[in-house]
Structure formats: structure tokens, C-alpha cells
Amino acid sequence: MAALPEGPGPANDSPMSIWPKSIWDVANPARFMRLSGALLPWVSAAAALALGGGLVWGFFFTPDDYQQGSTVKIIYIHVPAATLAINVYAFMGIMSLIWLIRRHHVSALAAKAAAPIGAGMTLAAIVTGALWGQPMWGTWWAWDPRLTAFLIMLFFYAGYIALWAAIEDPDAAADLTAVLCLVGSVFAIVSRYAVIFWAQGLHQGASLSMDRETNVADVFWRPLVLSLAGFFLLFLALLLLRTRTEIRLRRARAIRLAAGEGAEPPGEAA
């Protein structure tokens, strides 16, 4: 089992030494810990400002919709949560692919760290979608293509998390969960393009797009973009925090094994 060093990393301790020269430098656990430790306070502060600003602006300083009334303001949670649900799974797919090809432990642990966040976003999207859709559709749930794809994606998130918990060997768990994640990526794609593939679904078109004619009105669009930025920054802050925790847990496990629980001393991380 490979250890994940958390030491000082490069000998150069200047402030600029924490910044990677290439994206693959971040795969070094020691460098990742240094870089994430420097970024985390700034990302957290930016997330709080953007998310707080977007939600306050949207909920208290925008008018009710002439058709949907005040329920339209659910958009400031529903759309960012749904967007993150899809993009977090895409991120996990990329990290899983990197793990399978390059065997970088940080990528596997980042995918593991992202899964509960993505599952929470998916659940939030489903719940807020039900709250938003019930007054418009007359039902809390419909087997609409996008809704169904999101429900299946939630099951893949849950299966991914459960598989990590069920397998004791971290490398074996990373292998199997990576395969499961890549298989489930098709539902992330379907969730993203379901409205385009099946235009007859109940779900409306995209609220944010490059086509201004299909976008929400500017009075809703601006705070929605700020809220979306806040959600992405919140995800990044939680991802950095959780990945740092996973690295520490992995390193502690390797130390315990090296101390006499039946394994040889660990080698260097990939």
C-alpha cells in the first residue's frame, strides 16, 4: 500500500513554491496539501460571499414571476444544485479515468471526496424540483426523462459511496468504483441533454444557455449566475477540505499497517 506523504514537499519553501508547474504536480500528495491549504481559506470566503450575495439578491430583491409567483425563486437553489449534480459526476469520471490510467492516488481520493457532495446536490435538485414543479405540473413527481435520469444518477452516487465503504483495500475500492463511475457517466450525459433528446418531457428548457431568447429574464438571470458561481465555489471548498481529510486518513492507515498490522512498510506515493 502506497503511503501518502504530507511533509514539506519541495525543498524551496518560498511562497511561489506551492504553485504547481503542471497539472500533474497536484497529483503529488505533499504538494496538493500545501496548495489546497493555501487556497482553502480564499475559496471558502469567496464561496460565502458569492452564495450569500446570490441568494439574498435572488430571494429578497427580485420580483415574483407573473405565472409562477414566488415559487420561481426556487430557481436560485434548484438550477445551481442540478448543474453541480451533473458536473460533479463528470469531475468524478475524469478523476476515475486518471486513476485507472496514471494511478495517481490524489485523483482517486478526490473522486471519493466529491461523491457525497454530488449526491447531496442531486438530492437537493430532485427535492427543489418537486417543490417547484408541483404548482406548475399538479404533481410532485413525473417520470419525465430528466427527472428519471437524475433519480438514476442519485442511485449511482449512492452505489459509488457504498462500494467505497464495502471494500477494505483502498486501491481495489478505487479500481471498482472508478469503473462504476464511468459506467454511470452515461446518465450524467442523459441528465444534461434529456430536454434536448426528448422535447416532449414536462421539464422546461435550460434556464441558462448561450441563447438569450431561451434564458430567464435578466432580473432573474444576474442573481442566478452569482448563485451558480457560489455553488461552484462551495463545491471547490468542500472538495479541497474532504480530499485533504481523505489523504490524512489514507496516510494514517498506511502508517498503522507499517507499524505492524501485517503489511510491509509503504513505499512512495505515485
TrEMBL record:
<comment type="function">
    <text>Required for the export of heme to the periplasm for the biogenesis of c-type cytochromes.</text>
</comment>
<keyword id="KW-1003">Cell membrane</keyword>
<dbReference type="GO" id="GO:0020037">
    <property type="term" value="F:heme binding"/>
</dbReference>
<dbReference type="InterPro" id="IPR003557">
    <property type="entry name" value="Cyt_c_biogenesis_CcmC"/>
</dbReference>
<comment type="similarity">
    <text>Belongs to the CcmC/CycZ/HelC family.</text>
</comment>
<dbReference type="GO" id="GO:0015232">
    <property type="term" value="F:heme transmembrane transporter activity"/>
</dbReference>
<feature type="transmembrane region" description="Helical">
    <location>
        <begin position="179"/>
        <end position="199"/>
    </location>
</feature>
<keyword id="KW-0201">Cytochrome c-type biogenesis</keyword>
<feature type="transmembrane region" description="Helical">
    <location>
        <begin position="113"/>
        <end position="132"/>
    </location>
</feature>
<dbReference type="InterPro" id="IPR002541">
    <property type="entry name" value="Cyt_c_assembly"/>
</dbReference>
<feature type="domain" description="Cytochrome c assembly protein">
    <location>
        <begin position="24"/>
        <end position="203"/>
    </location>
</feature>
<feature type="transmembrane region" description="Helical">
    <location>
        <begin position="74"/>
        <end position="101"/>
    </location>
</feature>
<feature type="transmembrane region" description="Helical">
    <location>
        <begin position="147"/>
        <end position="167"/>
    </location>
</feature>
<dbReference type="GO" id="GO:0005886">
    <property type="term" value="C:plasma membrane"/>
</dbReference>
<dbReference type="InterPro" id="IPR045062">
    <property type="entry name" value="Cyt_c_biogenesis_CcsA/CcmC"/>
</dbReference>
<keyword id="KW-0997">Cell inner membrane</keyword>
<keyword id="KW-0472">Membrane</keyword>
<feature type="transmembrane region" description="Helical">
    <location>
        <begin position="219"/>
        <end position="241"/>
    </location>
</feature>
<keyword id="KW-1133">Transmembrane helix</keyword>
<dbReference type="Pfam" id="PF01578">
    <property type="entry name" value="Cytochrom_C_asm"/>
</dbReference>
<protein>
    <recommendedName>
        <fullName>Heme exporter protein C</fullName>
    </recommendedName>
</protein>
<feature type="transmembrane region" description="Helical">
    <location>
        <begin position="39"/>
        <end position="62"/>
    </location>
</feature>
<dbReference type="GO" id="GO:0017004">
    <property type="term" value="P:cytochrome complex assembly"/>
</dbReference>
<keyword id="KW-0812">Transmembrane</keyword>
<keyword id="KW-0813">Transport</keyword>
